[in-house]
Design goal:
With about 100 residues, the chain is mostly helical. It is built from four helices and three strands. It has a three-stranded antiparallel sheet. Strand 2 (about 65-70) and strand 3 (about 70-75) form a beta hairpin. Helix 1 (about 10-25) packs antiparallel against helix 4 (about 80-100) and helix 2 crosses helix 3 (about 40-60). The radius of gyration is 13 Å and the shape is globular.
Amino acid sequence: MDLWRSFLSSKQVRKIRLLEQIISKSAVSPDDLATNLATTNRLIKDLIEELNLEQQQFYNSSQKYYLFENRMIKLSKQVRVRTYVEFYLHLKSQYVNQMRCTP
């Protein structure tokens, strides 16, 4: 049971699940992500852009972390997988703490 999900908004849950799928596969089609997350390709692209910005802010970097190439969303080869996992854990923790502190 993923109890942490009850603390998050639906958008935050989508972002976390999106990260899980991309990190575990290194490359995935927006169509597959949209189907798995019960959303649209446009929303997937918007979420990816938001995740890129959040990860850039977290690492104080201008690096693009999630790339659109050949109709796939891919992890940048210039970034270690551990970096993505660290960000994933940070984001999950941040979201839970934000929601827990909200009245």
